[in-house]
Specification:
This protein has 82 residues and is mainly β. The chain is built from no helices and seven strands. The strands form two sheets. The chain has a four-stranded antiparallel β-sheet with strand order 4-5-6-7, with no helix packed on it.
Length: 82
């Protein structure tokens, strides 16, 4: 998986088939970090207005900081507790 930070897209590559899916995300540019979750169909994505949990089928699952603007996360690190 990888992100196009400026064109707001998520790419998912399947090495077995050689196919790459492209998903246009309904988020604000620029994107920052991409973090895998325990659900293979859900990722965390940072964007211009915060951090969201995003379903690969093109839906925002949660947006805990929707009220904040002009906040950009460029680092998807976690602490020792995860």
């Amino acid at each position: 998986m990888w992100l196009d930070l400026l064109n707001v897209q998520l790419f998912v590559h399947n090495p077995a088939s050689g196919e790459t899916e492209r998903h246009a995300l309904k988020l604000q540019s620029p994107l920052g970090a991409l973090v895998a979750t325990t659900d293979p169909n859900t990722v965390m994505v940072s964007h211009r207005c915060g951090l969201v949990t995003y379903g690969i089928q093109n839906q925002v699952v949660s947006d805990p900081e929707a009220w904040r603007d002009a906040v950009a996360y460029n680092d998807g690190k976690v602490d020792r507790q995860g």
